[in-house]
Amino acid sequence: MPVRNPDSKLIESGASLVSQTERNFGVVLSDNFTSKGSEIIAQFCDELNAAGIPVRRVKPGRELGRVQHWNWAHAQGWAEWLKPLFVGDLLKPEYVARVRQRAEKPQAHVIRCEFETRTPTGSSVSSVPFRQESLSPSEFLDYFPGRGNWLGGPLNMAYRLTAFQVTGGYATQLPSCADYKLHATLAVRYGLEIIHKNLATVQLHERGTSQDFRRRIELWLIFRQMQNFCRVNKLPWPKQAAHKSIYGESGVNYWQSS
Amino acid sequence: MTFEILIPVRNATDVFRKTVESLAAQTDKEFTVLISDNFSQSGHEHIDWALSLLAGSGIRARRVSPPTELGRVEHWNWLHYQSEADWLKPLFAGDWLEPNYIQSVRNAASSDPRCEYIYTGYQYHRGTETSTTISKWTGRFFTPQEMQEVVLRYAMQFGPPSAAAYSSTAFLSLGGYAAELPITADSFLFCTMAARFGAYGVPKALCHFNIHANRFSTTLPEQRLYTHRETLTYVFTLAYHAWTEKDNFPVMGYLRLLAREYKGRFSGR
User: Fold this and answer.
1) Domain B3-267 CATH (choose: 3.40.630.30, 3.90.550.10, 3.50.50.60, 3.40.190.290)
2) Distance from C-alpha of A47 to C-alpha of B35, rounded to nearest angstrom
3) What interface predicted TM-score (ipTM) does this complex get?
Protein backbone atom coordinates (compact mmCIF):
# COMPACT_ATOMS: atom_id res chain seq x y z
CA MET A 1 0.00 0.00 0.00
CA PRO A 2 1.65 3.20 -1.15
CA VAL A 3 0.28 6.16 0.84
CA ARG A 4 0.83 9.89 1.04
CA ASN A 5 -1.23 12.22 3.20
CA PRO A 6 -4.02 9.64 3.56
CA ASP A 7 -7.56 10.51 4.60
CA SER A 8 -10.08 8.34 6.43
CA LYS A 9 -10.54 6.18 3.36
CA LEU A 10 -7.36 4.40 4.45
CA ILE A 11 -9.32 3.10 7.44
CA GLU A 12 -12.01 1.78 5.06
CA SER A 13 -9.35 -0.06 3.07
CA GLY A 14 -7.96 -1.43 6.33
CA ALA A 15 -11.41 -2.67 7.36
CA SER A 16 -11.71 -4.55 4.07
CA LEU A 17 -8.41 -6.28 4.87
CA VAL A 18 -9.54 -7.14 8.38
CA SER A 19 -12.73 -8.64 6.92
CA GLN A 20 -10.80 -11.20 4.84
CA THR A 21 -11.83 -14.81 5.50
CA GLU A 22 -8.22 -15.87 4.75
CA ARG A 23 -5.81 -14.03 7.07
CA ASN A 24 -2.50 -15.56 6.05
CA PHE A 25 -1.04 -12.43 4.47
CA GLY A 26 0.98 -9.38 5.46
CA VAL A 27 0.79 -5.69 4.59
CA VAL A 28 3.63 -3.38 3.57
CA LEU A 29 2.61 0.23 4.00
CA SER A 30 4.97 2.66 2.31
CA ASP A 31 4.70 6.27 3.40
CA ASN A 32 6.01 8.74 0.81
CA PHE A 33 6.79 11.60 3.19
CA THR A 34 3.32 12.24 4.52
CA SER A 35 2.91 15.70 6.03
CA LYS A 36 -0.66 15.21 7.26
CA GLY A 37 -2.68 12.14 8.17
CA SER A 38 0.05 10.40 10.20
CA GLU A 39 -2.49 9.65 12.90
CA ILE A 40 -4.64 7.86 10.33
CA ILE A 41 -1.69 5.68 9.34
CA ALA A 42 -1.09 4.87 13.02
CA GLN A 43 -4.77 3.95 13.48
CA PHE A 44 -4.65 1.77 10.36
CA CYS A 45 -1.61 -0.12 11.65
CA ASP A 46 -3.13 -0.57 15.11
CA GLU A 47 -6.35 -1.98 13.71
CA LEU A 48 -4.59 -4.46 11.44
CA ASN A 49 -2.18 -5.56 14.15
CA ALA A 50 -5.09 -6.02 16.55
CA ALA A 51 -6.70 -8.26 13.94
CA GLY A 52 -3.53 -10.37 13.72
CA ILE A 53 -2.45 -9.03 10.31
CA PRO A 54 1.21 -8.01 10.41
CA VAL A 55 1.93 -4.54 9.01
CA ARG A 56 5.41 -3.39 8.08
CA ARG A 57 5.85 0.36 7.67
CA VAL A 58 8.54 1.48 5.26
CA LYS A 59 9.61 4.83 3.87
CA PRO A 60 11.78 5.65 0.85
CA GLY A 61 15.10 7.41 1.51
CA ARG A 62 13.76 10.55 -0.13
CA GLU A 63 10.47 11.81 -1.48
CA LEU A 64 9.53 10.06 -4.71
CA GLY A 65 7.17 10.77 -7.57
CA ARG A 66 3.81 8.98 -7.52
CA VAL A 67 4.64 6.13 -9.90
CA GLN A 68 8.22 5.95 -8.65
CA HIS A 69 6.79 5.35 -5.20
CA TRP A 70 4.63 2.46 -6.44
CA ASN A 71 7.73 0.80 -7.87
CA TRP A 72 9.75 1.38 -4.74
CA ALA A 73 6.95 0.04 -2.51
CA HIS A 74 6.77 -3.14 -4.59
CA ALA A 75 10.50 -3.63 -4.13
CA GLN A 76 9.95 -3.73 -0.36
CA GLY A 77 7.66 -6.76 -0.67
CA TRP A 78 9.25 -10.10 0.17
CA ALA A 79 6.27 -12.38 -0.38
CA GLU A 80 5.84 -14.71 -3.34
CA TRP A 81 2.77 -12.80 -4.46
CA LEU A 82 2.13 -9.05 -4.43
CA LYS A 83 -1.13 -7.18 -4.52
CA PRO A 84 -1.17 -3.38 -4.81
CA LEU A 85 -3.90 -1.65 -2.84
CA PHE A 86 -4.46 2.10 -2.87
CA VAL A 87 -6.12 4.29 -0.27
CA GLY A 88 -9.88 3.93 -0.68
CA ASP A 89 -9.75 0.61 -2.56
CA LEU A 90 -11.80 -2.12 -0.97
CA LEU A 91 -11.45 -5.90 -1.19
CA LYS A 92 -14.40 -8.22 -0.72
CA PRO A 93 -13.98 -10.68 2.23
CA GLU A 94 -13.18 -13.66 -0.01
CA TYR A 95 -10.58 -11.85 -2.17
CA VAL A 96 -7.42 -13.28 -0.59
CA ALA A 97 -8.90 -16.79 -0.33
CA ARG A 98 -9.94 -16.85 -3.99
CA VAL A 99 -6.63 -15.46 -5.23
CA ARG A 100 -4.62 -17.85 -3.10
CA GLN A 101 -6.63 -20.77 -4.45
CA ARG A 102 -5.90 -19.74 -8.03
CA ALA A 103 -2.24 -18.97 -7.26
CA GLU A 104 -1.70 -22.65 -6.49
CA LYS A 105 -1.71 -23.33 -10.23
CA PRO A 106 1.99 -23.53 -11.14
CA GLN A 107 1.50 -21.54 -14.34
CA ALA A 108 -0.34 -18.71 -12.57
CA HIS A 109 1.68 -15.48 -12.55
CA VAL A 110 -0.97 -12.80 -12.95
CA ILE A 111 -4.50 -13.01 -11.53
CA ARG A 112 -7.32 -10.68 -12.42
CA CYS A 113 -10.77 -10.54 -10.84
CA GLU A 114 -13.88 -8.52 -11.64
CA PHE A 115 -14.45 -5.30 -9.71
CA GLU A 116 -17.02 -2.66 -9.03
CA THR A 117 -16.39 0.99 -9.92
CA ARG A 118 -18.21 3.50 -7.73
CA THR A 119 -18.50 7.10 -8.86
CA PRO A 120 -20.60 9.97 -7.51
CA THR A 121 -23.17 9.21 -10.22
CA GLY A 122 -23.49 5.45 -9.82
CA SER A 123 -21.61 2.20 -10.08
CA SER A 124 -20.79 -0.52 -12.58
CA VAL A 125 -19.22 -3.96 -12.43
CA SER A 126 -16.54 -5.00 -14.90
CA SER A 127 -16.75 -8.05 -17.09
CA VAL A 128 -14.39 -9.63 -19.58
CA PRO A 129 -15.36 -10.34 -23.21
CA PHE A 130 -14.74 -14.12 -22.92
CA ARG A 131 -15.46 -17.07 -20.64
CA GLN A 132 -12.11 -18.78 -20.23
CA GLU A 133 -10.50 -18.85 -16.80
CA SER A 134 -6.96 -18.81 -18.19
CA LEU A 135 -5.47 -17.12 -21.24
CA SER A 136 -2.10 -17.92 -22.76
CA PRO A 137 -0.14 -14.91 -24.10
CA SER A 138 -1.37 -15.49 -27.65
CA GLU A 139 -4.96 -16.01 -26.47
CA PHE A 140 -4.66 -12.78 -24.51
CA LEU A 141 -3.85 -10.99 -27.77
CA ASP A 142 -7.14 -12.26 -29.24
CA TYR A 143 -8.91 -9.89 -26.84
CA PHE A 144 -6.28 -7.25 -26.22
CA PRO A 145 -6.11 -4.46 -27.16
CA GLY A 146 -9.00 -4.84 -29.64
CA ARG A 147 -11.70 -5.29 -27.01
CA GLY A 148 -10.85 -2.19 -24.99
CA ASN A 149 -9.52 -1.87 -21.48
CA TRP A 150 -11.10 -4.86 -19.82
CA LEU A 151 -7.97 -5.41 -17.76
CA GLY A 152 -8.86 -2.83 -15.09
CA GLY A 153 -6.41 -1.24 -12.67
CA PRO A 154 -4.09 -2.23 -9.84
CA LEU A 155 -7.09 -2.91 -7.59
CA ASN A 156 -8.15 -6.11 -9.33
CA MET A 157 -4.69 -7.51 -10.11
CA ALA A 158 -2.24 -9.65 -8.16
CA TYR A 159 1.03 -11.05 -9.49
CA ARG A 160 4.07 -13.06 -8.58
CA LEU A 161 6.97 -11.08 -7.13
CA THR A 162 9.35 -12.44 -9.77
CA ALA A 163 6.95 -11.47 -12.57
CA PHE A 164 6.92 -7.88 -11.33
CA GLN A 165 10.68 -7.78 -10.86
CA VAL A 166 11.65 -9.08 -14.29
CA THR A 167 9.16 -6.94 -16.23
CA GLY A 168 10.60 -3.57 -15.26
CA GLY A 169 7.79 -2.27 -13.04
CA TYR A 170 5.40 0.58 -13.68
CA ALA A 171 6.52 2.93 -16.47
CA THR A 172 7.23 6.22 -14.74
CA GLN A 173 7.26 8.03 -18.08
CA LEU A 174 3.59 7.17 -18.64
CA PRO A 175 1.84 8.43 -15.52
CA SER A 176 -1.73 8.10 -16.81
CA CYS A 177 -1.40 4.51 -18.01
CA ALA A 178 1.55 3.11 -16.02
CA ASP A 179 -0.65 0.39 -14.50
CA TYR A 180 -2.23 -0.47 -17.84
CA LYS A 181 1.20 -0.98 -19.38
CA LEU A 182 2.43 -3.16 -16.53
CA HIS A 183 -0.65 -5.39 -16.55
CA ALA A 184 -0.69 -5.75 -20.32
CA THR A 185 3.03 -6.54 -20.36
CA LEU A 186 2.65 -9.11 -17.60
CA ALA A 187 -0.26 -10.75 -19.41
CA VAL A 188 1.50 -10.90 -22.76
CA ARG A 189 4.58 -12.37 -21.05
CA TYR A 190 2.94 -14.84 -18.66
CA GLY A 191 -0.67 -15.17 -19.72
CA LEU A 192 -3.56 -14.33 -17.41
CA GLU A 193 -5.69 -16.10 -14.81
CA ILE A 194 -9.21 -14.72 -14.52
CA ILE A 195 -11.62 -15.00 -11.61
CA HIS A 196 -15.09 -14.24 -12.97
CA LYS A 197 -16.34 -12.77 -9.72
CA ASN A 198 -16.59 -9.25 -8.39
CA LEU A 199 -14.07 -9.22 -5.55
CA ALA A 200 -13.07 -5.57 -5.22
CA THR A 201 -14.36 -2.01 -5.29
CA VAL A 202 -12.68 1.13 -6.55
CA GLN A 203 -14.07 4.50 -5.48
CA LEU A 204 -13.53 7.38 -7.90
CA HIS A 205 -14.26 10.96 -6.99
CA GLU A 206 -13.66 13.06 -10.07
CA ARG A 207 -13.71 12.45 -13.75
CA GLY A 208 -10.47 13.23 -15.55
CA THR A 209 -11.84 13.99 -19.01
CA SER A 210 -8.97 16.37 -19.67
CA GLN A 211 -6.68 13.34 -19.48
CA ASP A 212 -8.23 11.57 -22.48
CA PHE A 213 -5.75 13.07 -24.95
CA ARG A 214 -2.77 12.08 -22.82
CA ARG A 215 -4.15 8.58 -22.42
CA ARG A 216 -4.31 8.14 -26.17
CA ILE A 217 -0.68 9.23 -26.55
CA GLU A 218 0.35 6.88 -23.78
CA LEU A 219 -1.61 4.05 -25.38
CA TRP A 220 0.24 4.63 -28.63
CA LEU A 221 3.60 4.53 -26.81
CA ILE A 222 2.60 1.40 -24.91
CA PHE A 223 1.47 -0.38 -28.06
CA ARG A 224 4.72 0.51 -29.82
CA GLN A 225 6.61 -1.17 -27.01
CA MET A 226 4.29 -4.16 -26.87
CA GLN A 227 4.48 -4.61 -30.62
CA ASN A 228 8.23 -4.80 -30.26
CA PHE A 229 7.90 -7.33 -27.44
CA CYS A 230 5.65 -9.46 -29.64
CA ARG A 231 8.10 -9.25 -32.55
CA VAL A 232 10.99 -10.41 -30.36
CA ASN A 233 8.94 -13.20 -28.78
CA LYS A 234 7.21 -14.22 -32.01
CA LEU A 235 3.71 -13.45 -30.80
CA PRO A 236 0.95 -12.24 -33.16
CA TRP A 237 0.54 -8.52 -32.43
CA PRO A 238 -2.92 -7.35 -33.59
CA LYS A 239 -1.89 -4.12 -35.32
CA GLN A 240 -5.32 -3.16 -36.64
CA ALA A 241 -6.98 -3.80 -33.29
CA ALA A 242 -4.37 -1.62 -31.62
CA HIS A 243 -5.13 1.25 -34.01
CA LYS A 244 -8.83 0.84 -33.32
CA SER A 245 -8.17 0.90 -29.60
CA ILE A 246 -6.30 4.20 -29.82
CA TYR A 247 -8.40 6.05 -32.35
CA GLY A 248 -11.77 4.35 -31.92
CA GLU A 249 -14.12 4.23 -29.04
CA SER A 250 -12.37 1.65 -26.93
CA GLY A 251 -9.53 3.66 -25.43
CA VAL A 252 -8.58 3.42 -21.78
CA ASN A 253 -11.64 4.57 -19.92
CA TYR A 254 -12.23 3.52 -16.36
CA TRP A 255 -15.55 5.38 -16.44
CA GLN A 256 -16.95 3.36 -19.30
CA SER A 257 -19.88 1.19 -18.21
CA SER A 258 -19.29 -2.49 -18.78
CA MET B 1 27.75 3.58 1.35
CA THR B 2 27.55 -0.09 0.38
CA PHE B 3 28.41 -0.91 -3.21
CA GLU B 4 27.66 -4.11 -5.09
CA ILE B 5 28.80 -5.29 -8.51
CA LEU B 6 26.06 -7.23 -10.32
CA ILE B 7 27.19 -9.74 -12.94
CA PRO B 8 24.53 -11.58 -14.97
CA VAL B 9 26.01 -14.73 -16.47
CA ARG B 10 24.85 -17.40 -18.87
CA ASN B 11 27.22 -20.03 -20.27
CA ALA B 12 30.34 -18.16 -19.16
CA THR B 13 33.46 -18.50 -21.28
CA ASP B 14 37.11 -17.58 -20.84
CA VAL B 15 36.36 -13.85 -21.26
CA PHE B 16 34.63 -13.91 -17.86
CA ARG B 17 38.00 -14.37 -16.17
CA LYS B 18 39.27 -10.96 -17.25
CA THR B 19 36.12 -9.39 -15.80
CA VAL B 20 36.67 -11.00 -12.42
CA GLU B 21 40.41 -10.34 -12.38
CA SER B 22 39.68 -6.64 -12.85
CA LEU B 23 37.52 -6.73 -9.71
CA ALA B 24 40.20 -8.51 -7.68
CA ALA B 25 42.66 -5.79 -8.80
CA GLN B 26 40.59 -2.84 -7.53
CA THR B 27 42.48 -0.43 -5.29
CA ASP B 28 39.31 0.07 -3.21
CA LYS B 29 37.98 -3.31 -2.13
CA GLU B 30 35.03 -2.04 -0.09
CA PHE B 31 32.43 -3.66 -2.30
CA THR B 32 30.66 -6.96 -2.80
CA VAL B 33 29.90 -9.01 -5.88
CA LEU B 34 26.69 -10.79 -6.86
CA ILE B 35 26.90 -13.27 -9.74
CA SER B 36 23.61 -14.51 -11.15
CA ASP B 37 23.62 -17.63 -13.27
CA ASN B 38 20.64 -17.76 -15.65
CA PHE B 39 20.45 -21.54 -16.12
CA SER B 40 23.85 -21.98 -17.71
CA GLN B 41 24.46 -25.28 -19.47
CA SER B 42 28.21 -24.72 -19.57
CA GLY B 43 30.88 -22.59 -17.95
CA HIS B 44 30.06 -23.39 -14.32
CA GLU B 45 33.77 -23.84 -13.65
CA HIS B 46 34.36 -20.16 -14.48
CA ILE B 47 31.86 -19.09 -11.85
CA ASP B 48 33.43 -21.39 -9.25
CA TRP B 49 36.83 -19.97 -10.12
CA ALA B 50 35.51 -16.40 -9.85
CA LEU B 51 34.07 -16.96 -6.38
CA SER B 52 37.32 -18.50 -5.24
CA LEU B 53 39.48 -15.68 -6.66
CA LEU B 54 37.30 -12.97 -5.12
CA ALA B 55 37.24 -14.67 -1.71
CA GLY B 56 41.03 -14.95 -1.87
CA SER B 57 41.21 -11.21 -2.61
CA GLY B 58 39.11 -10.33 0.42
CA ILE B 59 36.01 -9.46 -1.62
CA ARG B 60 32.69 -10.92 -0.53
CA ALA B 61 30.93 -12.60 -3.42
CA ARG B 62 27.86 -14.81 -3.72
CA ARG B 63 26.07 -16.71 -6.44
CA VAL B 64 22.33 -16.60 -7.06
CA SER B 65 20.08 -18.10 -9.69
CA PRO B 66 16.56 -17.06 -10.74
CA PRO B 67 13.75 -19.55 -10.04
CA THR B 68 13.09 -20.04 -13.75
CA GLU B 69 15.05 -19.34 -16.89
CA LEU B 70 14.65 -15.68 -17.84
CA GLY B 71 15.09 -13.56 -20.93
CA ARG B 72 18.28 -11.51 -21.14
CA VAL B 73 16.87 -8.18 -19.95
CA GLU B 74 14.53 -9.89 -17.51
CA HIS B 75 17.57 -11.49 -15.92
CA TRP B 76 19.25 -8.10 -15.48
CA ASN B 77 16.17 -6.83 -13.68
CA TRP B 78 15.83 -9.87 -11.45
CA LEU B 79 19.47 -9.65 -10.43
CA HIS B 80 19.13 -6.01 -9.39
CA TYR B 81 16.26 -6.90 -7.07
CA GLN B 82 18.45 -9.46 -5.28
CA SER B 83 20.86 -6.82 -4.00
CA GLU B 84 20.53 -4.94 -0.72
CA ALA B 85 23.39 -2.52 -1.36
CA ASP B 86 23.00 1.28 -1.48
CA TRP B 87 24.69 1.48 -4.87
CA LEU B 88 24.50 -0.99 -7.74
CA LYS B 89 26.84 -1.48 -10.63
CA PRO B 90 26.08 -3.84 -13.54
CA LEU B 91 29.05 -5.54 -15.17
CA PHE B 92 28.79 -7.98 -18.04
CA ALA B 93 30.98 -11.01 -18.61
CA GLY B 94 33.77 -10.01 -20.98
CA ASP B 95 33.85 -6.35 -19.90
CA TRP B 96 36.40 -5.20 -17.37
CA LEU B 97 37.20 -2.24 -15.12
CA GLU B 98 40.30 -0.17 -14.53
CA PRO B 99 41.83 -0.71 -11.04
CA ASN B 100 40.67 2.72 -9.81
CA TYR B 101 37.06 2.32 -10.99
CA ILE B 102 35.46 1.76 -7.57
CA GLN B 103 37.54 4.51 -5.96
CA SER B 104 36.62 7.01 -8.68
CA VAL B 105 32.92 6.22 -8.54
CA ARG B 106 32.90 6.41 -4.76
CA ASN B 107 34.58 9.83 -4.93
CA ALA B 108 32.02 11.01 -7.47
CA ALA B 109 29.11 9.73 -5.37
CA SER B 110 30.35 11.56 -2.28
CA SER B 111 31.12 14.77 -4.19
CA ASP B 112 27.46 15.79 -4.41
CA PRO B 113 24.57 14.50 -2.27
CA ARG B 114 22.23 14.75 -5.28
CA CYS B 115 24.28 12.18 -7.16
CA GLU B 116 22.30 9.00 -7.95
CA TYR B 117 23.64 8.04 -11.36
CA ILE B 118 27.30 7.97 -12.36
CA TYR B 119 28.78 7.03 -15.69
CA THR B 120 32.38 6.88 -16.79
CA GLY B 121 34.13 7.02 -20.13
CA TYR B 122 34.83 3.67 -21.73
CA GLN B 123 37.07 1.92 -24.19
CA TYR B 124 35.41 -0.09 -26.94
CA HIS B 125 37.05 -3.33 -28.08
CA ARG B 126 36.11 -5.42 -31.07
CA GLY B 127 38.82 -7.79 -32.20
CA THR B 128 41.88 -5.59 -32.73
CA GLU B 129 39.78 -2.44 -33.10
CA THR B 130 39.69 -0.14 -30.07
CA SER B 131 38.34 3.35 -29.48
CA THR B 132 37.80 5.55 -26.45
CA THR B 133 34.61 7.47 -25.72
CA ILE B 134 34.28 10.14 -23.07
CA SER B 135 31.05 12.06 -22.89
CA LYS B 136 30.99 15.87 -23.13
CA TRP B 137 28.98 16.09 -19.91
CA THR B 138 31.55 15.15 -17.31
CA GLY B 139 33.52 16.51 -14.39
CA ARG B 140 30.63 17.63 -12.22
CA PHE B 141 27.05 16.82 -11.29
CA PHE B 142 24.64 17.82 -14.06
CA THR B 143 21.15 18.64 -12.88
CA PRO B 144 18.03 16.85 -14.15
CA GLN B 145 17.14 19.98 -16.16
CA GLU B 146 20.52 19.97 -17.90
CA MET B 147 20.32 16.25 -18.58
CA GLN B 148 16.74 16.47 -19.80
CA GLU B 149 17.93 18.74 -22.56
CA VAL B 150 20.85 16.44 -23.40
CA VAL B 151 18.68 13.33 -23.78
CA LEU B 152 16.07 15.15 -25.86
CA ARG B 153 18.77 16.48 -28.21
CA TYR B 154 21.08 13.50 -28.43
CA ALA B 155 19.40 10.50 -26.71
CA MET B 156 21.93 8.04 -25.28
CA GLN B 157 25.24 9.67 -24.33
CA PHE B 158 26.21 7.64 -21.29
CA GLY B 159 27.89 4.45 -22.47
CA PRO B 160 27.04 0.79 -21.86
CA PRO B 161 25.79 -0.68 -18.55
CA SER B 162 29.35 -1.59 -17.62
CA ALA B 163 30.11 2.16 -17.51
CA ALA B 164 27.17 2.85 -15.17
CA ALA B 165 26.59 2.84 -11.42
CA TYR B 166 23.44 4.05 -9.68
CA SER B 167 21.73 4.20 -6.33
CA SER B 168 19.42 1.36 -5.46
CA THR B 169 16.60 3.85 -4.89
CA ALA B 170 17.04 5.30 -8.38
CA PHE B 171 16.83 1.86 -9.96
CA LEU B 172 13.96 0.54 -7.85
CA SER B 173 11.86 3.68 -8.23
CA LEU B 174 12.12 3.49 -12.02
CA GLY B 175 11.27 -0.23 -11.96
CA GLY B 176 14.21 -1.39 -14.05
CA TYR B 177 15.13 -2.08 -17.66
CA ALA B 178 12.20 -2.17 -20.13
CA ALA B 179 11.92 -5.81 -21.17
CA GLU B 180 9.85 -4.77 -24.22
CA LEU B 181 12.85 -2.97 -25.72
CA PRO B 182 15.61 -5.57 -25.44
CA ILE B 183 18.09 -3.69 -27.64
CA THR B 184 17.75 -0.24 -26.09
CA ALA B 185 16.60 -1.14 -22.57
CA ASP B 186 19.85 0.20 -21.12
CA SER B 187 19.74 3.43 -23.15
CA PHE B 188 16.14 4.02 -22.13
CA LEU B 189 16.87 3.47 -18.45
CA PHE B 190 20.00 5.64 -18.38
CA CYS B 191 18.34 8.48 -20.28
CA THR B 192 15.40 8.31 -17.87
CA MET B 193 17.72 8.28 -14.86
CA ALA B 194 19.71 11.23 -16.14
CA ALA B 195 16.59 13.25 -16.91
CA ARG B 196 14.90 12.44 -13.59
CA PHE B 197 17.83 12.48 -11.15
CA GLY B 198 20.68 14.20 -12.96
CA ALA B 199 24.03 12.53 -13.58
CA TYR B 200 27.72 12.73 -12.83
CA GLY B 201 30.10 11.85 -15.65
CA VAL B 202 33.62 10.74 -14.75
CA PRO B 203 35.93 12.15 -17.48
CA LYS B 204 38.13 9.06 -17.74
CA ALA B 205 37.79 5.76 -19.56
CA LEU B 206 37.50 3.45 -16.55
CA CYS B 207 35.63 0.57 -18.14
CA HIS B 208 36.21 -1.66 -21.15
CA PHE B 209 33.31 -2.64 -23.38
CA ASN B 210 34.30 -5.82 -25.14
CA ILE B 211 32.44 -7.15 -28.19
CA HIS B 212 33.45 -10.79 -27.91
CA ALA B 213 32.16 -13.77 -29.87
CA ASN B 214 29.26 -14.62 -27.53
CA ARG B 215 28.02 -11.12 -26.96
CA PHE B 216 24.70 -9.66 -28.05
CA SER B 217 25.40 -6.11 -29.17
CA THR B 218 23.35 -3.31 -30.61
CA THR B 219 26.32 -2.24 -32.71
CA LEU B 220 26.13 -5.36 -34.89
CA PRO B 221 24.85 -4.60 -38.42
CA GLU B 222 21.92 -7.05 -38.24
CA GLN B 223 20.54 -5.20 -35.22
CA ARG B 224 20.65 -1.69 -36.68
CA LEU B 225 17.13 -1.53 -38.10
CA TYR B 226 15.59 -2.64 -34.81
CA THR B 227 17.95 -0.43 -32.84
CA HIS B 228 16.64 2.65 -34.65
CA ARG B 229 13.06 1.47 -34.23
CA GLU B 230 13.49 0.95 -30.49
CA THR B 231 15.38 4.22 -30.16
CA LEU B 232 12.50 6.09 -31.76
CA THR B 233 10.11 4.43 -29.33
CA TYR B 234 12.04 5.47 -26.26
CA VAL B 235 12.81 9.01 -27.43
CA PHE B 236 9.09 9.51 -28.12
CA THR B 237 8.45 8.32 -24.57
CA LEU B 238 11.10 10.61 -23.06
CA ALA B 239 9.69 13.56 -25.00
CA TYR B 240 6.16 12.78 -23.90
CA HIS B 241 7.25 12.71 -20.28
CA ALA B 242 9.12 16.01 -20.62
CA TRP B 243 5.98 17.50 -22.15
CA THR B 244 3.73 16.24 -19.33
CA GLU B 245 6.17 17.59 -16.74
CA LYS B 246 6.22 20.95 -18.56
CA ASP B 247 10.01 20.85 -18.66
CA ASN B 248 11.99 23.01 -21.05
CA PHE B 249 11.82 21.35 -24.41
CA PRO B 250 14.58 21.85 -27.05
CA VAL B 251 12.21 21.59 -30.02
CA MET B 252 14.73 22.00 -32.84
CA GLY B 253 17.27 19.72 -31.19
CA TYR B 254 14.63 17.08 -30.69
CA LEU B 255 13.45 17.30 -34.30
CA ARG B 256 17.05 16.88 -35.46
CA LEU B 257 17.33 13.79 -33.23
CA LEU B 258 14.18 12.32 -34.78
CA ALA B 259 15.46 13.09 -38.28
CA ARG B 260 18.73 11.26 -37.55
CA GLU B 261 16.92 8.22 -36.20
CA TYR B 262 14.40 8.07 -39.07
CA LYS B 263 17.23 8.38 -41.57
CA GLY B 264 19.10 5.54 -39.85
CA ARG B 265 16.00 3.41 -39.68
CA PHE B 266 15.15 3.70 -43.37
CA SER B 267 18.74 3.42 -44.58
CA GLY B 268 19.10 0.27 -42.45
CA ARG B 269 16.09 -1.41 -44.04
Assistant:
1) 3.90.550.10
2) 42
3) 0.92
